[in-house]
Each structure stands twice: as structure tokens, then as C-alpha cells.
Write a structure and sequence with these properties.
- This protein is an alpha/beta fold.
- Helices cover 45% and strands 10% of the residues.
- The protein contains 14 helices and eight strands.
- It has an eight-stranded mixed beta sheet, sandwiched between helices.
- Helix 13 links the parallel strand 6 and strand 7.
- Helix 10 packs parallel to helix 11.
- The longest helix has 29 residues.
- The radius of gyration is 46 Å and the shape is elongated.
Length: 399
């Protein structure tokens, strides 16, 4: 009996244990997994600073995208640019006596021409070799063969009459003969004020490289300095940036510039410039023409066309030929060709400073029969001067 009771007890214990295991396993299956632990977030390191700025960045309030006003796209956002500043108008240097003020620049050619002649004439005995040296000095200065022979003949006669020659007598003698050679009585006024109408019309012609466009701009300064209003015509439509260059010159003195499209018809630009000059009541219209090579016949014909088209408004008062003084006798070839196409009324000699080519004044006047009216003596804006024979000769031979 006791054995039966013990077996029943063991069976009950075993069944209880098995029941507990089953219930425990079910509870374990029904329990949800534990939530993951939140990761530790480390603040980003602050930007390195130096000195007084070495501090940790502070949190600042920030707006959400809903709080930011965004453009609705109905109208473009206009960014106003600051207004461009108008170029400052310059007051050009007065032209009266300008050549006298620029005498030191012109006198750089003294050694070859003026002082060279004075040195030779001061020799105690003027033999044939000395006179040949005088001729060579004049020819080297581009005076030309015929003018040189005439001057030497007059000098020989006057020196023979003088007999004893003091330095002052020689200087006076040479000054008088050079002024006569240059031409004291030629009309050198640039005609810009016709009596019966306005504006005066001036064409500026010449080959590339002579400083033609620059000379046109400087001439505008000369005229403005003398109280005249100026319109510039940028008819050099073939050279890149020629119109921009001329417009810059005009803006500096308040002169209006008329220009056309690049590679456009230069005659049309010249015509429009004169038209606008008349409408504005300007005193002078300066027309800068294309500076093509004189050996190209078609381009020379085009230059003649520009003049004919302009004269549909009014006659051209001046045709100024710009020549580079350093080209010497080559400049005479250019002058000859241009004079066959348009009637040259005056010469502008540029780059005359620092050279021994002062005699080109005489040669070109003899070649064309027209006067040198303006000379350029440097790169400065006011280095273009009306030609004055006495001041020119005084600069050549010195004090």
C-alpha cells in the first residue's frame, strides 16, 4: 500500500513539473522583444577657432521650412545693379602757345638737324667737304633733295657776304633760312567754322599705324579747348575696336560719337554723323576713316565714296592726312596716293618727338603743295599742337 501511495505522489510531481515547463515555454514565446537601447549621440566637434574666437558654438533658433517665405514664382526676382558712373569730363589744355610749351620734346631732334648745321657752319674754313656734310645733314633729316639744294645755295651766298661769323650771327642766319624753307606765309588754320552753315566737316585719313584714330581724338580735345562742340564719326568700321577707342576719346571731353556695326558701311556712318551733328547744332563733325593700306585700289575708292556721300549734306571743309614722321620718304608716297583720291587740305605729322626727321615738314609740303597744320609730339592726350613755323625752328636750333 505504501508503495502505491509513493508511486502516485511521484506521478503527481512529475506531471506538475511537466505542466510548469510547458506553461513557461509558452509565456516566453508570447513576450515581445525588448526595445532597442537608444544610441548615444555625440555632438559634432566645433570648428576650430583661434584666439578670442575659441569657444564652442551655441545653439541658435532655427526656422522650419513652413516658417520661411518662399517666392511663389509668379514674378522673377529683379536684382538692381548700381547705376554706372558717368565718365568724368576733362578740361583740355588751351591750345594757344601749346607748341612753345612742348618745345623740349621737339628739341630732341636738335643734334641731327639744327645743332648739327650750326656746328658745321661754325667751322673756320667752309670748304667743299663741309658743304657736302651740310647737305648730308639736311638729307638725313628728310628735307628732300630740291629744298636741300636751295637752302645750301642761299647759305653759301649769305655766309660769303658775312665774312666773319659769330655764333649769334650764324644762329640768326640759319633761323631765317629755315623759317623761309618751312614756309612762314602758308595758311595753317584748321577750317572748322564755315561762315554760312554749321557744322564744319573734317575728314581724317591715313594708313594703318600712323595714329589716325588717336589723332582724331586729340583733335577733338583741341577743338573743345577752343570752345567748340564736337561730334565724332567712327567710320573706321574695319579695324577691331576702332569705334570703342574713338568713343573713349569723345567721352573724356563730352563729345558725342556716332558709330555703326562692325564691318558696316563706313560711308553710312559718316553720313549719319553729319546728320546728327546738324540736328544737335554742333560746331564740328570729325570723321575718322578706315586706315587701310594705300596700295589697295578698292579701299582707296571706298575712301572717295565716303567723301562723296558726306557731301550730300554739305561740302567737306578739311581733309587732314595723318603721316608718321618717322617713315620719312615713304610718307611722301602715301601722301601722293591719298591726294589723288581726295583733295588733301592739310597734313598732321605724328611721332615727331625724339627723331631726326624734322625735315619731313618741308618735304611733304613741297610734295603736296599743302601746309602742315598740326604736329604730334608725344603720347599724352594734349600732345597735339597747331604748327607754328617760328616755334618749330626755334626748337630745332635751340636757344
Amino acid at each position: 500500500m505504501d508503495i502505491v501511495i509513493l508511486a502516485v505522489v511521484i506521478a503527481v510531481v512529475v506531471l506538475g513539473a511537466l505542466g510548469g515547463l510547458i506553461v513557461g515555454s509558452r509565456r516566453k514565446k508570447q513576450l515581445p522583444p525588448p526595445p532597442p537601447a537608444a544610441p548615444d549621440i555625440t555632438a559634432p566637434p566645433a570648428e576650430p577657432h583661434v584666439g578670442d574666437e575659441a569657444e564652442t558654438p551655441r545653439e541658435e533658433p532655427r526656422r522650419t521650412i513652413e516658417e520661411v517665405d518662399l517666392p511663389d514664382g509668379s514674378a522673377p526676382v529683379v536684382v538692381e545693379e548700381p547705376p554706372a558712373e558717368a565718365p568724368e569730363i576733362e578740361i583740355p589744355e588751351p591750345t594757344a602757345g601749346r607748341l612753345v610749351r612742348l618745345r623740349t620734346r621737339l628739341s630732341r631732334s636738335q643734334n641731327a638737324l639744327g645743332k648739327g648745321l650750326l656746328t658745321l657752319l661754325s667751322r673756320e674754313h667752309l670748304d667743299e667737304d663741309t658743304w657736302e656734310e651740310i647737305e648730308d645733314t639736311l638729307l638725313t633729316a628728310d628735307v628732300g633733295v630740291q629744298p636741300t639744294q636751295e637752302l645750301v645755295e642761299r647759305l653759301r651766298e649769305r655766309v660769303k657776304v658775312l665774312g666773319t661769323r659769330t655764333p649769334e650771327e650764324l644762329r640768326t642766319l640759319l633761323r631765317e633760312e629755315l623759317i623761309t624753307l618751312v614756309g612762314r606765309d602758308m595758311d595753317r588754320v584748321v577750317k572748322t567754322e564755315p561762315e554760312d552753315r554749321k557744322p564744319g566737316i573734317v575728314m581724317v585719313v591715313g594708313v594703318n599705324g600712323t595714329g589716325k584714330t588717336t589723332t582724331t581724338g586729340k583733335l577733338a580735345r583741341v577743338l573743345v579747348a577752343d570752345g567748340q562742340s564736337v561730334v565724332l564719326g567712327a567710320a573706321d568700321t574695319f579695324r577691331a575696336a576702332a569705334a570703342d577707342q574713338l568713343q573713349t576719346w569723345g567721352e573724356r571731353v563730352g563729345a558725342h560719337t556716332v558709330r555703326g556695326p562692325e564691318a558696316g558701311d563706313p560711308a553710312s556712318v559718316a553720313f549719319d554723323a553729319v546728320k546728327e551733328g546738324k540736328e544737335m547744332g554742333a560746331n564740328v563733325v570729325l570723321i575718322d576713316t578706315a586706315g587701310r593700306l594705300h596700295t589697295k585700289t578698292g579701299l582707296m575708292d571706298e575712301l572717295g565714296k565716303v567723301k562723296r556721300v558726306v557731301e550730300k549734306h554739305a561740302p567737306v571743309d578739311e581733309v587732314l592726312l595723318v603721316l608718321d614722321a618717322t617713315t620719312g620718304q615713304n610718307g611722301l608716297v602715301q601722301a601722293r596716293v591719298f591726294s589723288e583720291v581726295v583733295d588733301i587740305t592739310g597734313i598732321v605729322l605724328t611721332k615727331l618727338d625724339g627723331t631726326a626727321k624734322g625735315g619731313i615738314v618741308v618735304a611733304v609740303q613741297r610734295e603736296l603743295g599743302v601746309p602742315v597744320k598740326l604736329i604730334g609730339l608725344g603720347e599724352g592726350a594734349d600732345d597735339l599742337a597747331p604748327f607754328e613755323p617760328e616755334a618749330f625752328v626755334d626748337a630745332l636750333i635751340g636757344e
